[in-house]
Amino acid sequence: MSGSEKARILLVDEDRQLLELLTKRLQRDGFSVKAAFSEEEALEVVTEEDFDVAVVDQKIPGMEEAETQRRLQEVLPFLQFLGLTRHGSSRGASKKGQPSVYGHLSKPIDYESLLAAIRGAHGKKLELERRAESGKAAALLSGRGVKKVWDTLRGVYRVPEQ
Prior knowledge:
single chain, alpha/beta, 5-stranded parallel sheet
């Protein structure tokens, strides 16, 4: 994915009017956006489509932030999260041990702050993917990785061991 591509965004909130407004504005700005109104719907959507950033209301009834994050990341391991909190909520601070929580925004949402947070979270996701790919390449180029590739190719092309 090139750096000029727009983030693919999953919005999760029970407020249908807010989701419709954000979806339209973000799409108008060139983002690919999908809205979900519950944790179950979000989990269903991520099995069908790839996303870069999830903007998730932290106070949806029946939804626990850390559990939702864990379940979504089982499907999309590099997905970055932006939490939405009510003004003055104590859940606004990022939690240690949750590296994919890029940040939190308060409701009512300032659209420019949301855009900046989405861009930052998308950049972080791309960087994590690059690191993971470079780690895989390094493993392949290590002595055991090259041997493994060579053994595989020898088996495919039926080259006898010398």
